[in-house]
Write a sequence for this structure.
């Protein structure tokens, strides 16, 4: 991970026609690393007007705009999400705070009648996800969760293949990914501290793997989970980062750097999941979706971040022959997934449309992560129950 990581979110200038006569007034909550990507996309959208920003670190929000060479004379600054929301001057907020404060910021915004684009992971526990869903339902506002890989054509191809029925009945899925040296501390330690990150590799990259396969198969409910989490690398005082420097964060490392889960889903499907920020291995394997009529292999990437690492392969038996159909990687779209995640949110706000990445799906993602944490602590399989909302 490097400072250049943000380059992954850069995109071409838009050529799409956007109706700028109706502007959406936006407040950015949390002006750290990922807020830079939000800002970059919003600045390209003629119908987005950034009117407010908040950060709990004094002066950080003001510096954020100065560092990004943005004229902030029309932007009001606030010391936390509460004051920004209480001021009531925005239609929508993008929540870019660390995981620990996703729920309180999202709930407060929804309760005050604002649309919300909430960074992933949705939050850190199932209880929080339920509370967010309740606030969303009571508000009637749009809540979209920030899973930009959904807007990648290759990710859509995975779903299209699965939904075509070519796999028959799906019975087993293996997914996840990992990095040999990928504990993310490019701009600070909020990902790895318990009080800010709360969950580690699962909330950072594991949630992408879960979304890839669960979205492809229609987000069935999870029934039971056997989970495991560990942090052998993060807590190792002699651990070295990818560039060979001492990591020097063992004493503050408070989340998991590896997690695994064996999940039974509705419909008799087994989901076998593992995710690693650090390991003595190149990759814990490709994603595979196995069905009664065919199986799909989705190559992993070296630095798993929710993008697909190579051509998809569909294995079937046709006319008595074992065959394999390759689906070559599709070229990138005109803009990055990050652009479309924000564009689709703004469009939904302007048209009163549906949330592009709905929380009713992502609550299932969160329930699995929550189940892995709880099962790991208890050391046994547990049942997952998602209350009706
Ligand atoms: N979609 C992606 O590709 C992507 C990439 C990186 C990070 N993220 C997600 O974005 C979130 C933030 O990550 P980051 O690396 O930018 O973290 P960060 O620590 O750099 O920034 C978070 C900021 O939020 C501020 N903050 C916390 N609580 C606040 C509150 N109540 N009101 C106002 N400000 C508050 C903090 O002071 C900090 O400046 C994480 O949940 C992470 O998972 C998503």
């Amino acid at each position: 991970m490097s400072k250049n990581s943000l380059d992954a979110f850069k995109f071409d200038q838009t050529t799409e026609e956007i109706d700028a006569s109706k502007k959406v007034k936006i407040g950015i909550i949390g002006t750290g690393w990922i807020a830079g990507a939000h800002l970059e996309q919003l600045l390209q959208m003629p119908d987005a007007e950034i009117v407010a920003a908040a950060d709990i670190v004094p002066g950080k929000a003001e510096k954020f705009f100065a560092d990004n060479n943005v004229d902030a004379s029309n932007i009001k600054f606030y010391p936390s999400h509460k004051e920004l929301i209480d001021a009531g001057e925005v239609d929508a907020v993008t929540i870019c705070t660390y995981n620990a404060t996703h729920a309180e910021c999202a709930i407060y915004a929804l309760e005050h009648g604002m649309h919300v684009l909430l960074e992933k992971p949705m939050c850190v526990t199932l209880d929080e996800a339920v509370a967010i869903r309740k606030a969303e339902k009571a508000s009637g506002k749009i809540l979209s969760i920030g899973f930009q890989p959904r807007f990648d054509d290759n990710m859509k191809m995975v779903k299209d293949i699965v939904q075509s029925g070519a796999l028959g009945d799906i019975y087993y899925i293996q997914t996840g990914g990992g990095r040999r040296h990928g504990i993310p501390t490019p701009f600070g330690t909020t990902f790895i501290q318990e009080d800010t990150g709360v969950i580690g590799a699962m909330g950072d990259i594991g949630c992408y793997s879960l979304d890839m396969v669960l979205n492809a198969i229609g987000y069935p409910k999870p029934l039971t989970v056997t989970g495991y989490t560990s942090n052998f690398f993060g807590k190792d005082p002699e651990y070295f980062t990818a560039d060979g420097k001492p990591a020097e964060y063992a004493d503050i490392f408070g989340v998991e750097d590896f997690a695994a889960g064996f999940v039974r889903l509705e419909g008799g499907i087994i989901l076998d999941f593992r995710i690693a920020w650090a390991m003595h291995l190149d990759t814990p394997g490709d994603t595979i979706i196995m069905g009664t009529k065919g199986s799909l292999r989705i190559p992993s990437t070296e630095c798993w971040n929710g993008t697909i690492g190579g051509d998809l392969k569909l294995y079937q038996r046709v006319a008595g022959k074992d065959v394999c159909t390759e689906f070559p990687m599709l070229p990138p779209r005109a803009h990055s997934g990050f652009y479309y995640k924000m564009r689709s949110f703004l469009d939904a706000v302007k048209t009163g449309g549906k949330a592009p990445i709905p929380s009713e799906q992502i609550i299932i993602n969160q329930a699995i992560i929550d189940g892995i944490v709880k099962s790991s602590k208890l050391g046994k399989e547990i049942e997952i129950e998602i209350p009706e909302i």
Summary: DSSP finds nine helices and 15 strands in the chain. The radius of gyration is 21 Å. Residues 1-14 have pLDDT under 50 and may be disordered.
